[in-house]
Design goal:
single chain; 229 residues; alpha/beta; Ribulose 1,5 Bisphosphate Carboxylase/Oxygenase; Rossmann fold; 2 domains; five-stranded mixed beta sheet; three-stranded parallel beta sheet; 22% strand; globular
Length: 229
């Protein structure tokens, strides 16, 4: 028995087996959107890697030209001149022990965390709280650095991170249903450029296997991966 409502099932008719071009797929997702709120537009990509092998882990970062339509809040763990730089760059919260105490008390009102390398030992005290939410600063993501001003500036401009899950799928948001079609298309193409550039050297065979585009509550629209070539 289906768990989906009538609107979803009606929208799904006729699109299950069709592969659309990127531009046609965006139009179709917007046409089939039926929620009363401004849904996100998400893309899921099955990639040709073995997620059980560490050398095939896929991760990267990208700054979308049109953002994704959300306000970003950034917490920076820094002291002295680095704290001053973070504040000037637009960080929402800057501190050290005081931020740790707030987090231990249940406060998590931020989307990204940045830390200077000398304070990662301190951040480790709340790693178990931040980890499940993907908020632990990471050298691989560039969020553990003394150049806090640049990282904060990039994040405020819309820099986003991506990685594969245990099923070799990458989940990413490219904007909102209310976005102009061309802006969504440019965001999508910019993301794929970064994704392909992040392909692990040890991954063999076809890299982009399947692409599905959807709105938050909407049906999945399959895109033609051959368009990338």
């Amino acid at each position: 028995m289906s768990n989906h409502g009538k609107k979803y099932l009606q929208a799904r008719k006729g699109v299950e087996t069709v592969q659309y071009s990127f531009s046609e797929g965006i139009k179709k997702v917007k046409e089939l959107s039926f929620a009363k709120f401004d849904e996100s537009v998400d893309v899921d990509i099955n990639v040709g890697i073995d997620p059980t092998k560490g050398d095939q882990a896929l991760r990267g970062a990208v700054t979308l030209p049109h953002g994704i339509g959300r306000t970003v809040k950034i917490a920076v763990f820094a002291k002295g001149e680095y704290a001053d730089q973070a504040t000037k760059a637009g960080a929402d919260y800057v501190g050290a022990e005081d931020l740790i105490e707030k987090i231990e008390g249940g406060w998590l009102d931020f989307n990204f965390a940045v830390a200077t390398p000398d304070l990662m030992g301190l951040v480790g005290k709340v790693a178990k709280i931040l980890g499940p939410r993907g908020l632990v600063p990471s050298k691989k993501n560039g969020t553990v650095t003394f150049d806090v001003a640049k990282v904060v500036s990039d994040l405020k401009k819309g820099r986003l991170f991506f990685k594969n899950d245990k099923s070799a799928i990458v989940h990413f948001t490219i904007g909102k249903v209310s976005f102009d079609n061309q802006n969504l298309l440019e965001n999508l193409k910019t993301f794929f450029k970064a994704l392909v550039a992040a392909k692990p050297a040890s991954a063999k065979g076809k890299f982009i296997k399947k692409i599905t585009l959807s709105s938050t509550m909407g049906v999945g629209i399959r895109l033609n991966p051959d368009e990338l070539s």
